Amino acid sequence: MYLPDRAALAADLPLDGSLEVEFDAATGVIRLTGKGAWVTETVEACFREMVALVMQRREQRRPVLVLVDLSECAVQSDEVAAKIGLGAEKVQQPGDRVAIVVRSSLVKAQLRRTLPQPGEIFISASAAETWLMAYSH
Questions:
Q1: I need a surface site. Which of 84, 87, 118, 123 has the fewest CB within 10 A?
Q2: Are 17 and 73 in contact (CB under 8 A)?
Q3: Phi and psi (nearest 5°) for 23?
Q4: Contact at 8 Å (CB) between 84 and 64?
């Protein structure tokens, strides 16, 4: 499968995307929202925030529930995809529930190839939230 390199991405989409992490105390869900195309530094900063939140949940013996909204993201460069895979490998453990929302089959394929435990990948945000919360209590 061909995935565009960083130069090809830069020609189509500026590398000024964002990744934001927040914790929803009402639901206990860690929400990660991504937009555009990213550079590796953006991914590294995001995973630093994620690790802190996940460690806090583990210390409290609370479930790790993560909703990742990538519905406004591009296919990422191979370098960025590799950083995502490494970051996920460090933070994710069996039993964690991770729901990922994407907008295309190409992004879905990249995630399945990149992530060690991709969780469940959805096109619908409401389906992702329903799955994530189904066994959370």
A1: 123
A2: yes
A3: -110, 125
A4: no
Contact (Cβ atoms closer than 8 angstroms) between residue 45 and residue 18: no
Q: How far apart are CA 20 and CA 17, in angstroms?
A: 10
Give the single-character DSSP code of 102.
-
DSSP 8-state symbol, 68:
E
Mean pLDDT within 118-126: 89
> pTM, whole model, 2 decimals?
0.83
DSSP secondary structure letters along 47-83:
HHHHHHHHHHHHHTT---EEEEEEEEEPPPPHHHHHH
Contact assessment for residue 123 and residue 103, using Cβ atoms and an 8 Å cutoff: yes
The alpha carbon of residue 65 and the mean position of all alpha carbons in its chain are separated, in whole angstroms, by 12
Q: Could you report the per-residue pLDDT of 2-61, keeping only the tens digit for each?
A: 333 444 444 455 567 899 999 999 999 999 999 999 999 999 999 999 999 999 999 999
